[in-house]
Task: structure prediction
Amino acid sequence: MTAAAASPADLTLYYPFEGMQFGPQKCFLCGTPTVPRQDSVPVFADWLMDRYQLRERSIKLLDMRIVAYPELRIACCGQCRTRHVEPLEAHLEQVSRQGVQGFRELDEQTLFLWLGKMFYGVLVTELLNELDPLAVPRYPLAENAQMLRRFQAFFQPLQALRVPMSYDDFVPGSVFLLETDPAQDDMPFEYDDDLSTITFSIKLDSTVLVACLVDNGIIGQAMRRVYKQAKRPLHPVQAAEFKARVYYAAYLLNVVPDYYPRPTHPGDTEVVLDTLIDDTIGDIFNPWDNSAYAQSLLEMWKRWQIPLAEILADPEAPLSLLYDADGQPRHLARYPEEIRK
Result:
């Protein structure tokens, strides 16, 4: 990630899970002691908040508290902030000005790290809030053993933000880049997530990024046909359907990658991560269920108020706006479509 030559100390990985050291007293990238409030970086960068007027907007967390976007911050020492986080954000600000094409030309690791930094910040905020919740969440994250295992796995390739790192013949996550038709799109910024599956989406103007950050690209492989056919300007309701497919696939995913850093030696300039997925004890995906998938569609289509009864009018084939009745990619000029007389 960084251009400077690395010393042996630079290749030391940080493991904050012993004692769950995610509070404001330690840098999220290296573990250096930090001064709360003073040593921190925004989860959503200043350039994002300025461009999309997020400083005046709030986000609802799982414990029902309402938090303004500028209040979402993660502990970060001065060195990591100036050497790693701020250069990453400056680069992404420039990339974003080129729109969809800029993101298409961005290398996979840089995009993963930028998305991962935001997701990490939201997830840790939720975990810390559970220590003193405004309202106890129905399904506390800290009690979700599978989520915590995914979080531990996700954090290892995320350390490439600080430690020069390469992944041996794998990508840590599935990242999808969609484009919405600006003529049909009036929502410049959107963010949503499913913390339990390490999945989230962010929309910047006509660029929609959807990611499962800890699947070794399995969902990307499973959805390669749908993704290829979605590489065209989509109506936002179609982009929402694509997101529902990714979120539901992440919910069905039945494996969590293990990562193994290779031993480093004097003169090494990067850490190499190997990976292993144990798929001998069960299927990679749990069985598909149309009624459960319909709930994912219902959530993503809230903006258009599409009722569950319409989504499941045919229980064997939930409503699709990406495809027509013959299974061909559907061009949707507007939604709801005009009724022809």
In short: Residues 1-7 have pLDDT under 50 and may be disordered. The CA atoms of residues 60 and 66 lie 5 Å apart. The first helix runs from residue 46 to 51. The first strand starts at residue 40 and ends at 42.
